[in-house]
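note to self: dont lose this again. the chain is below, predicted strucutre after it. 821 aa total, dont forget to put it in the shared folder this time
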Amino acid sequence: MGGGLCGAPPPRPPLSPLSLLGAIAALGLRFLEHPSDARAAPGGSLRLRCRARGDEEPPELGWERDGAALDGDSDLAQVALPGGAWVATSQLRLSPVSASDSGRYRCWARLGGGARLLSREAHLELAGLPVFLEEPQDLELAVLAPFRLRCSARGPPEPVRLRWLRDGTPQNGLGDPLGQSPSTLWVPGLNRSSSFACEAHNERGVATSRSATVTVLAPAPRNLGLAAAGPRWLEVTWEPGDGFGDTGGDQECTVQLSPGDAAAVAAVADPADPASIADPAAVADPAAVAAVSRSVPVPPFSLRLAGLRPLSRYLARVACRDRRGRSAWSRWVPVATEEGAPEGPPRNVSAAWVGPGRARLRWGPPRDPLNGVLGGFRVGYGTPAHPEVILDVGLAQEASLDLGSLGPNVTLRVVSYTGGGGGPWSPPPLPPPPPAPLETQLVRPAAPAGVWWPALLALLALGALALLALLALAARRRHKETRYGAAFAPAVRFRVRSSYGRRSAQATLNRLGISPELKEKLRDVLVERHRVALGKTLGEGEFGSVVEGTLHQDSGVLRVAVKTMKLAICSRGELEDFLSEAACMKEFDHPNVMKLIGVCLQPWGRGSEGAPPAPIVLLPFMAHGDLHSFLLCARLGDPPTALTPRTLLGFMADIAAGMSYLSQRNFVHRDLAARNCMLDERLRVRVADFGLSKQVGGSQYYRQGRGAPVPVKWVALESLAERVYTTKSDVWSFGVTMWEIAAQGLTPYPGLENSEVFEFLRGGRRLGAPPQCPPHLYALMRRCWAADPRARPTFEELGGALGGLLRGLPPPPGAPAPPHE
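---
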């Protein structure tokens, strides 16, 4: 028997496409006008149009390109007809037309949010003169030095053929392999300066590239080397090139220094170009590479360069100029400064007596810069009547001193030293008065018989007087409190217990079994939860939220930003790790790094007894908020605010300086993005949001062990694949942050979902250049996204390159002209 009334109804078959169109037509929806095929020139404007009719209600119209929804500049007009019908018209405006606009367009219509009816396809084809993607650039080369020039162009229409010109003379035919785009012209060398250009041909006509001047230079100086070095200076010598100075007249040479080593310069050379490897100056922009540039009249052929960083590696090169013109640059030569002494004394020096004649001295490491490798500490103690004794205690940060009978006037101090010498001594701490010497406590002169009872009576009288004074003081205070209490009744009166602030935090740490060493480090880090009042939410991120708050201190009320973490602390070990990192972050002291004010421990509440508390991070309140919101407001404001290239490059340079500081302390940020960089009242960027930071040890990497969410569009390729984070993965994130700044707040990888980013990157593709981004700045971003982390630049190199780009910008209006070098 079949299923009766009580059985489940048989499933209904799905509608076929023809049935779906029939159902839509039954509702009275149909197109009156379909979009038409079109052809446009790049940079022009175009409109696509469609019309639809609805018998009972106004149709809704939209557009798609190549099957994807299109949010373009379109308008919609709906007109009611007699009898209740409606006609809707939509026009899609494309202006200016670019290569990305070509494709298959459809218009869709629907009624009341129902199924969509698609129009016929319209094809948009671009046609115009070729557009250059890459043009030949100026070069300065030695005589007969080989070099390459590159040129590429595209249509539509295609194909595009290229012809190279040297001093106006064609170098190839359009049908030659050299005529295919992109094209690389290999020149074995020149003995005189020449100009090169590239012609691009298609059926619409001919476009000509810029003219590149290849200047043939005099022979480069040779035998550049280091003559002497100190902590902050270098002296280099060299020999002039052949024929230098034969024509007489003024002669000078310029020496340039670049931070780094040979690998840093190799990174700016092109491995596919033998000329760039033989002479890095052929492809490296001196203004971008050099951090120090000095010119000197010659002879003698030597120069002393001062103002350098101690214990730092540099690369040096030299070029000379006489009446014939400038010579080629010499090869890069590695040089290095010597180790220097620390610039600051040890910090947090404290002293305490631990017994008769014995004191314990404790201290922390000196502030940076150390200017070398820390060799250890020396402790000094003495009095005006006794010469100072100096002890070397190695790398220990405390010392127990046997001061003998030096007494309370002893002076204690500490100094750190490196291979370059000792730094400044610490200010002497103020120890408490020493206890009475042991001999005084044990050996007392015998009192004569019969004399002890008057002394006892005197002591009893003094004790009674002291007790009466305390009772009188207590009565006066009680009377004062009662009087003020009546004046403000029925208000509740209370007194804050001075011991509550520290005892509560210490009790929590004791309950969790935190080690004594860590508790000592947290003495200046932990802030009691009752001292923090929370206000409005300032922002939500992937890993937490930021709330405005106030911190009630003994010295007053401080406005703060309160960072709460979404990642749960599940064990005592994880809480210990977090608090250890917080103790380290408390020591951060850099103008481009957000300084940690403190950490609160927030109990979870009922039902969570025994669970570790949630950490809350307290940071300074920033007047201009996060960098991402600032960029968006500038671009989308009413009216928009124009941010100058100097301002945007300054933001990038600030972040590079802050990240360089963190990387030198072995901190991996793991969440570097514009949203996690804050702007203070001077529009100076400070790297913030250390909720994901990890301090790494000698291995210099951190492997994420839990399946926590990650900011996919900012994370390096190897971090997505293996959950491994290093300073080099932070460099990748910095490149994406540079892209955000140059694009003024646009979201990276527009059109891609998070799930698509990994395959996009694994296929060798990268973010495209932001609108109006200079090529050399985009090239710096691309270096940050190298698939091999070892090929990415360091934050020090990035800071130097960005500083060079800033110096290359014209000065702002009203600024004094830079001195002539």
